Amino acid sequence: MNLTRKISFILCISSLMLSGCTETEQHQSYETSYAGMFYNRAEAFYCYKTANNLTHRLDFETMKDAALCNKPNCNHTATDCFMKRLNGQVPVFDGEHGYYFLDDAPKYQPDESGKTKVVLGSSLYMHDFSQETDTKLLHVDASVSNNCYGLLLKDHNIYYIENLYSRETDENGVETGFGNTGGPMSLHVYSLETQEDTKLCELYNPAEIGRIYPTVYYSGEVYMAGVYDNKLYFNVSFISETQPELVSKIYPTYYDFTDGSYHGQPDNISDFENSVVAFVSEDCLAECRNGETTVYRKGNEIPVELTNECFNDYSEIYVINDTLFCTGKVFDLNTKEVREPAVLKDKSVVAKYGDSYIISDIGMRENFEKISAEQLLK
Ligand SMILES: [Zn+2]
């Protein structure tokens, strides 16, 4: 970890140490719901995208795994099926409601130069699971694919990322440059109470990054990693084509809910070594860089540093209490002891539920099992 980031993390850790003691430790999971590219991990269920591009919900109590659709006798093929409409996206949840964005069907418009451009648009919907109805809450002139950038519901606010990338079409009306997604991206909040929509900050500006990497032009991307200690973490990545190599960079940033400040990349981005926020929960943040993983925990001043090649597979990391799980392995964060239980061969832990653990195949989730702590840790 370079010095700038080390300092910012130390500041972050010290500020939470100061504020952490004065606030009542309330369980907020019912008020905070985060959906990433593939899943939404709630206290009692796991909502996820299947290999067939469907949205399923696994109930931890019953281990029932079913399509996210309450319509009786629905075969999930018609567009009046909520799950079909989601098209593999994972919503955020608030009691009986689910929230999600759907990008508009493509609309084409010629610009001044005679080129045909695709007009961007996206709408926020609220789904009522008891009535099976959908209500449109907001329309924005941007792309908000929440399966790409993540979506967050926190304290009756929906936080989403807007992308203003441009899409052109060729003379046949076929969209070109789909990889060219490096448009400006910003964080917005929609209040479910006042229906107000506000831009909070810019997260990614290709022109700015282009000053350091002049040829940055495609695949710029920002996605939410989750909320840790009242801060919303993002991973920012971009690919820049230079002669003769392709430079790929990824680095974490965060938005601080406490004072509304955004902590973006440092002034000299070229100092940045690739680093990714791999796991985030209210109590813990795990960051991976070059095979090394640093774990920050609420209430623990000293982060835990672990070195192991398995962390290259950072998307499988799950941390709860004093234990870090990744594919096939279990790490004790206090003793740094590593175990490789037989039950975790080619499997990873998805969640902890009561005294049990939910495990599944790695990659696209399949074959969920609920096992006891004894089974897992022996
Ligand atoms: Zn259905």
Q: What characteristic shape results from the CA principal axes?
A: globular
Low-confidence stretches are 1-30
Tell me which ligands are bound.
zinc ion
Radius of gyration: 21 Å
Calculate the terminal CA-CA distance, rounded to whole Å: 34 Å
Strand content: over 45%
- The helicity comes to 10-25%
**Overall mean confidence score, pLDDT:** 81
Number of helices: 5
Record field, number of beta strands = 32
Backbone structural class: mainly beta
Biggest sheet architecture: 5 strands, antiparallel
- The side-by-side strand order for the widest beta sheet comes to 1-12-13-16-17
Q: How is the secondary structure organized here?
A:
Blueprint: H1 3-20, E1 32-35, E2 39-41, E3 45-49, E4 55-59, E5 65-67, H2 82-86, E6 92-94, E7 97-103, E8 107-110, E9 116-119, E10 122-128, E11 133-140, H3 146-149, E12 151-154, E13 157-163, E14 168-169, E15 175-176, E16 185-191, E17 197-204, H4 206-212, E18 216-228, E19 231-241, E20 246-256, E21 261-263, E22 276-281, E23 284-289, E24 292-297, E25 300-307, E26 318-320, E27 323-326, E28 329-332, E29 338-339, E30 347-353, E31 356-361, E32 369-372, H5 373-377
Antiparallel strand pairs: 1-12, 2-3, 3-4, 4-5, 6-7, 7-10, 8-9, 9-14, 10-11, 12-13, 13-16, 14-15, 16-17, 18-19, 19-20, 20-21, 22-23, 23-24, 24-25, 26-27, 27-28, 28-29, 30-31, 31-32
Bound molecules: zinc ion.
Residues 67, 69, 71, 74, 76, 81, 83 line the site of zinc ion.
